[in-house]
Sequence to fold (356 residues):
Amino acid sequence: MNQQRLSRVTAYMKQEGLEQIIVSSTASVYYLTGCWVEPHERMLALYLDASGKAVLFANAIFGLSDTPELPLVCHTDSDNPVEALAKAIKPGKLGIDKFWFSKFLIGLMGLRGDIVPVPGSAPVDLARKRKDADEQERMRASSRVNDLVVGSVIGMIRDGITENELAGQVNKLFLQNGADCEGTQLVCFGANCADPHHNAGNTVLKPGDSVIFDIFTPIGRYWCDMTRTVFYQTVSEKQREVYELVKRANETAISRIKPGMLLFEIDQTAREIIAQGGYGPYFTHRLGHGIGLDCHEPPDVSSASNTPLEAGMVFSVEPGIYLPGEFGVRIEDLVLVTEDGCEVLNRYSKDLQVVG
Ligand SMILES: [Mn+2]
Fold:
């Protein structure tokens, strides 16, 4: 049990008026306990009360062990998974994190008519939003690998190659450099770049294509996530104009990051630059997302986010312009908010590159 993190979470529980909560996400349970469990359809539930008492309810098959600071209550596949939990909770409000399956909550409510389930993710989300020194170091290390991998894979661009082949190379390079697992990498050519969530497919590279690499993976549990766009063999005037506009939106937004700014102001900075350049309707998504133990986690960096920036936050800055039927450009870096600005975790060049 990480006592420092636990005491931050219980402070937020008090702030949010929550006497007891259930934490169920793999990442949040790991954040507090150091145990990494992927329960799939089985039950994992960390019960916390505001005094700092913690009990872990888990399926015996997860192979966890009981410790004095974190008592473990196991059930088996033939038990009702919520039965022991139902005996441990207090009546009244019970915060439930957003990931707990409704089948468990409905089962628990059936056994305990005196509880009032309420949204309960905030205390852990608020704690996880500001990365501690250990987390910051792991995120730097993870992004250093990403810099290396994107450079290597850009060097593999050649005639006749497909998106899938490059995506496979990205996964291979990530695994060789310590990634925890393989992922679905976004590699897009030409008109496919106009779809921000296009997955790699069998499209073959052709001269004049924009090439987007949006590559991400957990390394030592902490995610990296970076996007670079390059051009194959030739670049048109329009491509160059769009590229330079996205780059300026990325760099200007980053230059405004410091504690006390509001997240929507960072989004707005990038959005205004793209709008002034005449491409406003083609920047179709939020500027970025928090990242850490999950690839997407709070805070949200969008026009609707009133959250003030705080030192220790890590999020992406990823403006893009997507022109249907033509091409697309996105440039993404991760930033760590510092006391007086930010540290950009990605170092790989953002200068326009024509390769091959
Ligand atoms: Mn991202």
Remarks:
- Residues 225, 289, 316, 318, 332 surround manganese (II) ion (CB under 6 Å).
- The chain has nine helices and 17 strands.
